[in-house]
Amino acid sequence: MHTAFSELSSLARGIERTSIGGQVASALGLSLVVRGLERTLGIGDHCTVQGANGPVLAEVVGIDDAGTRLLPFGTWDGVRTGDAVTVTHAATEVRPDAAWLGRVVDALGKPVDGRGHLPEGATARPVRAAPPPAFDRRQVGPRLDTQLKVMDSFVPLCRGQRMGVFAGSGVGKSTMMAMLARHAQPEVIVVGLVGERGREVQDFIRDDLGEEGLARSVVVVSTGDQPPLMRRQAAWTATAVAEHFRDEGKQVLLLLDSVTRFAMAQREIGLAGGEPPTSKGYPPTTFAELPRLMERSGPGKGTAGDITALYTVLMDGDDMDDPVADAVRGILDGHVILDRRIAERGRFPAVDILRSLSRMLPDCHGPEEYALYRAARQAAARYADMEELIRIGAYRKGSDPEVDAAIRLAPLLDTLLGQTKRDAMPSGETFARLAACLDEAGIKVQG
């Protein structure tokens, strides 16, 4: 009975309620200009273009003297000059429900996993919402035990923290995200795959996330071949779903892969809407949308839960000065940098512990844990300073006892931090092994 009512309710909400109509005036590239709706539609409103191949859902991205400028959620194939355009109450909201756990949906919240009807919750939630007021939020909570050795020890993640994972292509960002989804223990996981390769979607769900991970997850997918509006909305929808479960008092882990593709989609939308290109071709709205998206995650308020979020950032040519990477690094509460050289020598996750940073340190470590972290990091920094001299044989053993100890620690640390995607280790055991490595290298830990 409940399922039948839910299906009827979904159909009723899908009935288009039309108002004033307009007509297609011109189309160029992604952008279509409509006349007759200038006083009816505002930026961000949705309408339907009645093309020869069927109706096309569109969004208003600009208004000027020429008319109202639209971009499609599909393609303009079959649309001609003079075609009718009607204002609709389109799907700018989603209705998440506990029944969404274990399901895969698209950017509009429609099921794409072939498992039939997706029940809808009673409360509609806008996909584009304002972040909670700063003074309504709680503080970041205790450390989240991710069971990834390198993160628990060197780049700890706390409840309600927002972290960026920065890397070039093929260095292991998606695999690391899958490891977090598999081994961390939040109540709900929301995965946003924005602009992902179509081939890799099922690989991620079946091989990386697995049945156990999927059972407590909602996966929002928009593949790279889809229009920019769909790719952008996938990030908004994933965040809205996470907000729903957070407001129900649950601890939510939001994994968004990737922010760079979200920014690229916003770049296409902005340029098609007539915005001027600025840094690396990105229009100003790109850098305005990034904080609006990422500030929505974080600690909740009152009795609500928290959204602990990880956002991947694809760096062009491993360039940390890429404008998107630079902007994201300034917004988030820490960054994990994956290094291609570490990956090439076979250690995964390929986290560069010296360049990575969690802004929750030192408070999220206990005194003994922080002492171990500091001693290991200092030794790793000494080794990095002398690495070139050591490799060419210019450093003579015995010249500096601290460098000698750092040389002994380097291979031990490399072995400790390596981990396959199906391995897991509680943080307590990780710190015990780190202490053993320091002891074997002859490094004294100052308490």
From TrEMBL:
<keyword id="KW-0653">Protein transport</keyword>
<dbReference type="GO" id="GO:0005737">
    <property type="term" value="C:cytoplasm"/>
</dbReference>
<dbReference type="GO" id="GO:0008564">
    <property type="term" value="F:protein-exporting ATPase activity"/>
</dbReference>
<dbReference type="InterPro" id="IPR027417">
    <property type="entry name" value="P-loop_NTPase"/>
</dbReference>
<dbReference type="InterPro" id="IPR020003">
    <property type="entry name" value="ATPase_a/bsu_AS"/>
</dbReference>
<dbReference type="GO" id="GO:0016887">
    <property type="term" value="F:ATP hydrolysis activity"/>
</dbReference>
<keyword id="KW-0547">Nucleotide-binding</keyword>
<feature type="region of interest" description="Disordered">
    <location>
        <begin position="114"/>
        <end position="139"/>
    </location>
</feature>
<dbReference type="GO" id="GO:0030257">
    <property type="term" value="C:type III protein secretion system complex"/>
</dbReference>
<dbReference type="GO" id="GO:0009288">
    <property type="term" value="C:bacterial-type flagellum"/>
</dbReference>
<dbReference type="Pfam" id="PF00006">
    <property type="entry name" value="ATP-synt_ab"/>
</dbReference>
<keyword id="KW-0066">ATP synthesis</keyword>
<keyword id="KW-0067">ATP-binding</keyword>
<keyword id="KW-0375">Hydrogen ion transport</keyword>
<feature type="domain" description="AAA+ ATPase">
    <location>
        <begin position="159"/>
        <end position="343"/>
    </location>
</feature>
<keyword id="KW-1278">Translocase</keyword>
<dbReference type="Pfam" id="PF18269">
    <property type="entry name" value="T3SS_ATPase_C"/>
</dbReference>
<keyword id="KW-0813">Transport</keyword>
<dbReference type="GO" id="GO:0046933">
    <property type="term" value="F:proton-transporting ATP synthase activity, rotational mechanism"/>
</dbReference>
<comment type="function">
    <text>Probable catalytic subunit of a protein translocase for flagellum-specific export, or a proton translocase involved in local circuits at the flagellum.</text>
</comment>
<keyword id="KW-1005">Bacterial flagellum biogenesis</keyword>
<comment type="similarity">
    <text>Belongs to the ATPase alpha/beta chains family.</text>
</comment>
<dbReference type="InterPro" id="IPR005714">
    <property type="entry name" value="ATPase_T3SS_FliI/YscN"/>
</dbReference>
<dbReference type="InterPro" id="IPR050053">
    <property type="entry name" value="ATPase_alpha/beta_chains"/>
</dbReference>
<keyword id="KW-1006">Bacterial flagellum protein export</keyword>
<dbReference type="GO" id="GO:0044781">
    <property type="term" value="P:bacterial-type flagellum organization"/>
</dbReference>
<dbReference type="InterPro" id="IPR040627">
    <property type="entry name" value="T3SS_ATPase_C"/>
</dbReference>
<protein>
    <recommendedName>
        <fullName>Flagellum-specific ATP synthase</fullName>
        <ecNumber>7.1.2.2</ecNumber>
    </recommendedName>
</protein>
<dbReference type="GO" id="GO:0030254">
    <property type="term" value="P:protein secretion by the type III secretion system"/>
</dbReference>
<dbReference type="InterPro" id="IPR000194">
    <property type="entry name" value="ATPase_F1/V1/A1_a/bsu_nucl-bd"/>
</dbReference>
<keyword id="KW-0963">Cytoplasm</keyword>
<dbReference type="GO" id="GO:0005524">
    <property type="term" value="F:ATP binding"/>
</dbReference>
<dbReference type="InterPro" id="IPR022426">
    <property type="entry name" value="FliI_clade3"/>
</dbReference>
<keyword id="KW-0406">Ion transport</keyword>
<dbReference type="InterPro" id="IPR003593">
    <property type="entry name" value="AAA+_ATPase"/>
</dbReference>
